[in-house]
């Protein structure tokens, strides 16, 4: 299982809630959101491109940082 780090342009609890709902629907194994730092960590075997596109469905700008 790989831990991926993404920067997501979240500004409020509503933004992080939208990201959480998307990740829960995907059935992602484990994820963590740090709203003040605008970071999302996802533990998954899914493809990075797939995860990036899924996060973009929140309507926020998404940037893949790398693995941790």
TrEMBL record:
Binds and deliver cytosolic copper to the copper ATPase proteins. May be important in cellular antioxidant defense. One of its GO terms (molecular function) is metal ion binding. Belongs to the ATX1 family. Homodimer. Interacts with ATP7B. Interacts with ATP7A. Interacts (via dimer form) with SLC31A1 (via C-terminal domain); this interaction improves ATOX1 stability and controls intracellular Cu(I) levels. One of its GO terms (biological process) is copper ion transport. This is Copper transport protein ATOX1. PROSITE patterns: HMA_2 (PS50846). Residues 1-63 form the HMA domain. Keywords: Chaperone, Copper, Copper transport, Ion transport, Metal-binding, Transport. GO terms for cellular component: cytosol. Pfam families: HMA (PF00403).
